[in-house]
Design goal:
- This protein is mainly α.
- It has twelve helices and no strands.
- Helix 3 packs across helix 8 and helix 8 (129-155) runs antiparallel to helix 9 (164-177).
Amino acid sequence: MWTRAIMAYRASFYLMLIANFAVTSLDFVVLLLMFRHTDRLGGWSLPELGFLYGTSGLALGLANLFVGSVDALGDRIRTGTLDTMLIRPAPALAQLCAERFSLRRLGRPFQAAAVLAWSLTALPVHWSADRVLLVPLMLASGTVIFGAIFVGGATLQFWWGEARELQNSLTYGGATLIHYPPTVFAKELVAGAVFGVPLAFVNWLPSLRILGKPDPLGLPTAFQYASPLAAALCVLAAALAWRAGLRAYRGTGN
């Protein structure tokens, strides 16, 4: 329904899609400007950073496309309209994710995919079977991880109505963090992205294997292949948080 409504004004849709593509490109322009003054950033080249940028941007963009609307939960709670979703014969979470579904959000994944495609052609990587398999695996797992963070962050709005910005700091802020190599950050921050909010499993850890980079934390090699397990644990945590939020919700009735 939302797609049909948007496509009723095709010129507006295409203009918004192009604008979204252009705005998200500015992040990569920043990287290009940096590399006008240096050949390496934390020991990583521009194509290697392009790989990080493309994988994180594509995972975030796809997650935002499918479940990004869930951040409107706080508005639903404040206006009391969440109650109407709870009495319908469909999961409330699915309804929230589908609400105001917008294809203009494709601008971000399209732009990230273009950067990723360029980086793959520019990287001097020996593509063994496991490295080839890791690329789609990390993209799928990263999308699931970001989707779980979207949902998990949104559930905080059951108790704290202004939690949307905290959620944005974990999703959009987290994607910006992993645009850059782990070697430019303190080891404590990198450890937090592994054992706290598992953003490192989106691209940092798999990229170490694909690009042949040393691990700044010295973790076992198994961590570089553990993105699917991290994604599964994130989904479990988000599901438990969502169920706890629904149980805590009292509605607007008597």
